[in-house]
TrEMBL record:
InterPro entries found in the cross-reference section: MbnP-like (IPR023977), MbnP-like_dom (IPR046863)
Pfam family, one: MbnP
Sorted UniProt keywords: Signal
Signal listed as a keyword: yes
Protein name per UniProt: Copper-binding protein MbnP-like domain-containing protein
UniProt organism field: Vitreoscilla filiformis
The keyword Signal is assigned to this record: yes
Extent of the signal sequence: 1-23
Domain Copper-binding protein MbnP-like: 27-272
Length: 324
């Protein structure tokens, strides 16, 4: 019995030392996100002042997006992947990680549910870090799965693009104010795309839904699909200190070139359609453009081209670092 007790004590001591060594080797990371209008934090009950080219007031209806493969870079220039905590909003699968950032809480006009996830949590090796990098959107290795059977956070049906074609990488929706009634309904007047004349109908919400497009079944692909346009967006932030800074999602910058009071055709707002008038303007804000490619049979396919030199990808416009 004494020998067994001694062995148990030794094993416990060894395990404790291993945990202590691990704690000394790694440090906790918290990367926070906040919706803003300019530098002013906002939420579901806020009035979003002065959006779009007309400076209209609006209210938030939804603000969710996926973030994948978060990395930090040390002051010595070593890039390190953040090991995510396992929870319902964060997933590690193989070499890829993904987190759902949920900045709406079902109050006011906001859709979804009351649960929020505004902070990515995890760990990195001990060190001093001054650069943040991540990709907006779901990696292709995880994108084309059924929300009914996928693990969290890929099981969120609100973020489903369509069965097997993937996810909405970003889902941002706002309701502009109706100039006549003062309400945040029926504030977007619809225009005929051919004649340019106003119709008698209105939309409540402007949708910005970003997802991959031109997706087709491809049995030779490990994911079962290939997409002509991969609309995941790689961002990086120089001089980023996660202890004192957070990432703003600036709605004023996002809609800077958009008239939120008029709809010129296609789905409401911009749902990643290359021929949608609203998407053409929003693509320029996210440092991208649509390029038409004509096949031998005359079929035209539109490809998203991303200019990685654009300020958007350097974390200087819509997504940017601000103080906590």
């Amino acid at each position: 019995m004494q020998t067994l007790f001694v062995r148990s004590a030794v094993a416990l001591t060894t395990a404790t030392l291993c945990l202590a060594a691990q704690a000394e080797t790694f440090q906790r990371v918290n990367i926070a996100f906040v919706p803003t209008v300019g530098d002013t934090p906002v939420g579901c009950t806020s009035v979003l002042r002065g959006l779009g080219v007309t400076g209209v007031d609006a209210k938030l209806q939804d603000l969710r997006f996926y973030v994948s493969n978060v990395k930090l870079t040390t002051t010595e220039g070593v890039e390190v992947a953040v090991t995510l905590d396992a929870n319902d909003a964060q997933l590690t699968s193989g070499s890829d990680t993904v987190a759902l950032i949920d900045l709406e809480n079902a109050k006011g006009l906001c859709a979804g549910d009351a649960s929020r996830h505004a902070v990515i949590t995890g760990k990195v090796p001990k060190g001093t870090y001054n650069k943040l990098a991540f990709t907006l959107g779901v990696p292709e290795s995880l994108n084309h799965t059924d929300t009914a059977t996928a693990p969290a956070p890929l099981d969120n049906t609100d973020m489903g693009w369509s069965w097997q074609v993937g996810r909405k990488h970003i889902k941002i929706e706002v309701n502009p104010k109706n100039a006549t009634t003062g309400e945040f309904t029926q504030g977007i007047k619809k225009y005929d795309s051919t004649t340019g004349l106003p119709t008698s109908t209105y939309n409540d919400s402007f949708y910005f839904h970003l997802g991959n497009t031109g997706c087709e079944v491809d049995t030779s692909s490990a994911n079962g699909y290939t997409c002509s346009s991969d609309n995941t967006l790689p961002l990086h932030f120089h001089g980023f200190d996660y202890k004192t800074q957070r990432v703003a999602v600036d709605l004023k910058a996002l809609f800077a070139k958009t008239n939120l009071t008029r709809e010129w055709g296609g789905p409401p707002g911009c749902m990643s359609g290359a021929t949608d008038p609203e998407c053409k303007k929003m693509w320029s804000v996210i440092g991208s453009r649509f390029v038409a490619q004509t096949a031998a049979d005359g079929t035209v396919t539109y490809i998203s081209k991303h200019n990685l030199d654009h300020a958007f990808f350097h974390g200087e416009t819509v997504f940017r670092a601000i103080a906590k």
